Every structure is written in structure tokens, then in C-alpha cells.
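Task 17 of the worksheet. Students: predict the tertiary structure of the chain below and write it out as C-alpha cells. Keep your answer in the requested format; marks are given for formatting as well as content.
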Amino acid sequence: MTERLVETGASLVPPPPETGTDFPVLDTLRAVGALCVLTTHAAFWAGDYYRNGAWGTFLARLDVGVAIFFVLSGFLLARPWLARAADGRDAPGARPYLWKRLLRIAPLYVVTVVLALTFIEENQDRSPSDWLVSLLMLDTFTTAGAPAGLTQMWSLAVEVCFYLLLPVLMVLLVGRHRVLNPGRVLVGLAAMVGVSVWWHLDGAARAGELSLGNPLQWLPAYLGWFAAGILLALAQVLHARGSTRWTQGLVTLARQPGSCWTLVIGLMLVTATPLAGPTLLISPTAGESLLKNVVYGIVGLLVVMTGVFALPGGLYERTLGHGGGRRLGWISYGIFCLHLPLLHFVMWSTGWTLFEGRGLQIWALVLVLSIVAAELAYRLVERPALRLKRLVPDRSSSATSSSSPTSGTTIA
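Model answer:
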């Protein structure tokens, strides 16, 4: 089935390598995350947060899409290191890994920044130094707010920081030997969660005294979300190699997607209460910030695990692994980047006013324009850029499994 879906998309633009082949549902879940972010921004601009009671608060909490992104990144990016360690092979090369990440993120990001700073009226007085700060993705570290049309990019800056940290992090979690020690990885993941908890309760406040930026939008606040993704990568690697001591329960739950999504809805309803803090642009207390962060992390874990362990050929995989959903996943980065500049365009071109309703109309227009723009960006910017990855080949990938021990795994 997977091969048929890939062939369908390849007639237009080849699908992303290595990501959707083994886990087709994850492509669609990436689209779910992007659409959640788009929806929550459209609802905010329409004023639906405060106009529609509990429903408005629920719409505000659809920023949970960022948690889905981060858990996905943790899983997809850490898995090669864990899988190679389990098979006794060399770790991925840091240079080709970073080169691929640069090609994946930078071209469309630069295009988005140029469009937003050039055409959005609120950005007309931006200085050359402001342009440089935005192009280098430093807004959250140097200012209290990003330029108009780029306020969603704080999460991309967090992603990039994680990309830079990952090679070092995997050395700490896996070591330099060709042996995967699950206990060592779990201790490291617990430490990541601990850093994230401390950051919400104390670290962000201390950093805020020394910086003009927004420390609650820095990587330490979200290490727990990435740790959830790495945990799923560890579970998948172990389960695929026959280790079921603690993975079987996770797999059993993941293969009951109805139960997982029911838990997700319940948790999201919890975040729609005052326990998770205010819905508008008001700073939460440390406790509110931590609660929301922890619940979002669990939601991201539950959502992504349904795709990681989807029953091959089952109804869930057939439904969410459909070509249309996967296509949205392939262009989801464009949807994420471009939807806010397009939201500005929709409000400017229609003459609609901020916070005066028309939520459904705003959402529909931005959604359609974002999908069209993302498809064009995927064809004209993203895929051509990714073809340059061969300039920095990963020579460690040429190592064959024949170099592994006879058992095929080296899980300690």
C-alpha cells in the first residue's frame, strides 16, 4: 500500500525520502499539526478566543500542534542514531545531518521572511539590523516579539536549536560505542524532562532578567516534548528488534487509536480550563505554564504513537495513510510558514477588522490560500533545495549490516 501511495505522489513531485516510507501515518499527522496552528491563529484574529466561551478556549489550545511537531521531530531525527546503535553500525555523520536540516528549513524560511518584511505594512519601518535578526532566526532571543507575519517562527527557532543540539545529545544518550543501552537513554530522557520542568518553574524567570527575549519560547522549555519523541524512537527500535519487556504495552495502546484520541480530547478539555492559564496574550504563572506544557507533551506523545505503531494494513493506516493526507503532510512546512503572511493578506484585501468575527470565512480563505502557496513552495523551493543534499554525502550510511554482529542487534 505504501509503495502505491508513494508512486501516486511521485508523478508530480517525489515524496520526501526516509520520512514517510516506513511510517505513512506520520505524514498526515504532520498535516494535522500544521492545520491546528493555522486554525488557532485564524480564530485569534477573528476574536473567537473570548467570544465563544469554552469553544473559544479550545480553539486557543490548538497551538498544541507545535507539540505534535516537536514530538515528531524527536522521533524522526533520533531514530537513525538509535537504530544504528542497535544494529552495531556507525552513527550518522553530523555534517551531512546538519546540511540536510539546513536545506530543509532555510530556503523557505528565508522566502517567508522576505515576503513578510517586504509586503506587510506593519513591517515597513524595519531596519537592516531587524532584517538580519529575523533572517538569522534570533527574534525570540533579542526582542519581546517577532515581526508581523512571523510570530509563528518562534517554534521554528526552537526546532533549529534542537537540530544543533541533537548530535551532541545522541552522543550522551547512546555513547560512541556500537551498543544501545536503553537504560542510559531513559536516564537521559528523564534529565531532559527535568530541565524542562525546572525551566518553567524557575529557569525562564532567571533568564528573563538577563535577556530582552522570551525565555519561555526557548529550547529548554520544550525539551520534554522532544524527549517524548525520542522515547517513541527507542520503543520502536526495540520493538522492531524483538524486545517487548516494556514496549508491548505502548504498542498495544497505540494500536487502539480510538482510545488514544479519546484521551487526547479529554486532555485538551483539561487545558481549556483556567488550570492551563489564560487564552489571550497574558503571561501565565509558572504552574500554569508547566501544566499546559506537560499536558501538551502527553497529547503529542499519544497522537504520534498512533502513527509510529499503526497496524500495517489496518483501517487506521489505510485512512490516515491515504495519498491526500500524506500530500498535505509533505507540504505542511509551507502551510506553517506561509499561513500568517497570508492571514495578513486576507485581512488587508477584504477590509475585515481584527477581532470582529467572520472566523469561518477567515479560516477557509487562509486554508485554501495556504495549501495553494505551500504546494507551489514545495515544488519551486523545498524539493529543489533538498536535491542539494548529495553535495555532503553521509558516508556512514554506506556501512552494511554485514558489519553487525551475527545476532543483528547489540542492545544492552
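Marker's comment: The CA atoms of residues 98 and 163 lie 7 Å apart. The chain is about 65% helix and 0% strand.
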